[in-house]
Amino acid sequence: MSAAEVVSYGRRLTDMAALRPDDADLVMVDRAGAERPVTWRELEVRANQIGRLLDRHGVTAGSIVALALPSCLDHILVTLAIWKLGATLLPLRHDMPQWEMDRLLELGRPTVLVSDAHRSTSTACLTRRDIAASTSWSDAPLSDRISECVNLIASSGSTGLPKLIVTPVRGVVAGDPQVRYIIDRPTTILVTSPLYHVNGFNFASPPLLEGARSVVMEKFDAALAVDLVERHRITLTVMVPTMLQRIARLDGVRREQLASLETVLYGGSTIPEWLVDRWIDLVGPDVFQLSYGSSERIGLVRMTGREWADHRGATGRPVDATISIRDDDGNELPAGAVGHIYMRPTDPGRRLFDYIGMARPEPTADGYHTVGDMGSVDGDGYLYVADRRKDLIITGGANVFPAEVEAALSEHPAVIDQVVVGVPDPEWGQRVHAIVQPADPAAPPDVEELRAFCKQRLVGYKVPKTYEVVERIGRTDAGKLNRTRLGAARGEGARG
């Protein structure tokens, strides 16, 4: 793309507001299912006004703006305003404790924090009330600027210390090859993940500016998601396994309700095989697709459900990188052996990620990077993800990947969610502990029933030694949790 052809996100918004001012390609859906269509004119007007508010507080090209609001229209408006100024978005959970927020603000040193729940002594703070009051500012188009980095991603690595991932994506139309790879035809997207999460962010605002229509759920609900797919003729959605599992467990969900879907993309942690089978049955083998990638964008792996029959358990083959599986000493392992997943982009000129809060690990001598995941490849080059290295449980000297145990538990028809952690144990070093959320709280599965169920599916040392049935597993809206903290908190107190 020549310099003359580069179109910034800010300019695209202005152009769309001029061409189609009354078209509403963004629909916000609240928790009760009420819909709020948003026109291009409103997006442009409010982005310019909020941009001027941010500018008054010192935000300019290259600045970082921390945004810690729930999924809502203001979240998207502030995001567009940030890009209008050529600045960088740092999306953060709106419900994180203040001490955690303080650590991230110390790392990123944003010029402004937008939050209703947090404060900072070193950063200018704005609330949604301030955002609402910005309607008094001029709505004339701002000067055209390009964000050299559209967003940062907050993450805590294997050490538990926070870091910020600097994504290698500029704020220009057709500047993100992964978005263009997915949005390659007219698309209506259902956004199910919170906007602070990679899946929520990547499939809300950027695709909207690339020509897609976005229907954004302020909070995921399985039955509502199915209704929205049917009502809006959704063609693409991206979900994490917990969301897919909740829809699969709905009574009476029918293929006809999901008939408009052209792509259901699974991304996130590993997924149980029965759940893949169920979704292939619901939407067809060409519609359900599996993927693996990282926030660092060192490579994208993908395949369709049609390939699943011959490669059960895989997540696909790389589309923009090569894969190498290596041991702890960096030696390449043969097909079928589990080791560290290394990837090398096929485009040697591709911009690389960076970190704030820790040094970017040096690549191998032949240019491969790893982000700490473990897996294997088969003879055809398909990748099988085992789990995160930091989540590995070592019990009695044997390695147990929680994802494998969780997959077994998820098959139980009375289970709606599950997590497996390592709990400190004086005899075993760690013991495998299962936390289970029942589909019907009034009729939870019996512990001995769960134990017998797992023994039918797992070798002995992988079967959880203790079980815990809870009313709700405390995942974030993005489906995430911290296994290390959960295990440490239980210590010797697990029952079973």
Question: Which helices and strands, and how do they pair?
Answer:
Layout: H1 9-19, E1 26-29, E2 35-38, H2 40-56, E3 64-68, H3 73-84, E4 88-91, H4 98-108, E5 112-115, E6 124-126, H5 128-133, E7 152-156, E8 162-166, H6 177-182, E9 188-191, H7 198-202, H8 205-210, E10 213-217, H9 222-232, E11 236-239, H10 241-248, E12 263-266, H11 273-283, E13 288-292, E14 301-304, H12 305-308, E15 317-318, E16 321-326, E17 339-345, E18 354-356, E19 373-377, E20 383-388, E21 393-395, E22 398-400, H13 402-410, E23 415-425, E24 429-438, H14 447-455, E25 466-469, H15 483-490
Parallel strand pairs: 1-10, 3-4, 3-5, 5-6, 9-10, 9-11, 11-12, 12-13, 24-25
Antiparallel strand pairs: 1-2, 7-8, 8-18, 13-14, 14-15, 16-17, 17-19, 19-20, 21-22, 23-24
